[in-house]
């Protein structure tokens, strides 16, 4: 393997970081002992930027490329999510009924009524009591993760200092 660039991140399928590499787990490092690496990373991933800085933390994360709206070091998203009412499509659970006596005729241009196969005209609709329908759902979070294969991201803490051009 050729000598890596300092700060280069690679995937490793093994369970240890090779010599000159550290897993990307958000470790806090001393600036004085890692000045060249700090000059590349700064305190973007954590640390106080005076005596310490942090490595990127890829645990449970998927890397994406930086953009004008997503700056370097941004960590967002969640592994599990519970939907809120504002995230659901607009819909209704209200049932309207008629005060007119239902018949066993077809449902065309008629509305649902309480008896089996009984329908009434769609005129004179009355909103039913709110207790007519029960609450549904358990308010439990759902898994929000894309399909994945777990490997180790590691960053070169020794290597060639990358030039800008």
Write up this protein.
The chain has 165 residues and is mostly beta strands. Helix content is 4%, strand content 21%. It has a domain at 93-131. The protein is built from one helix and eleven strands. The strands form five sheets. A three-stranded antiparallel sheet has the order 1-11-2, with no helix packed on it. Strand 7 (110-112) and strand 8 form a beta hairpin.
Strand content: 15-25%
Number of DSSP E strands: 11
The computed structural class is mainly beta
Silhouette: elongated
The N- to C-terminal Cα distance equals 23 Å
Order of helices and strands: EEEHEEEEEEEE
Question: In a nutshell, what does this entry contain?
Answer:
The model has no long low-confidence stretch (mean pLDDT 86).
Summary tags:
3-stranded antiparallel beta sheet, 165 residues, 21% strand, 4% helix
What's the structural blueprint in terms of helices and strands?
Elements: E1 9-12, E2 21-23, E3 28-30, H1 35-41, E4 52-54, E5 80-81, E6 96-98, E7 110-112, E8 119-121, E9 125-127, E10 142-143, E11 152-156
Antiparallel strand pairs: 1-11, 2-11, 3-4, 5-10, 6-9, 7-8
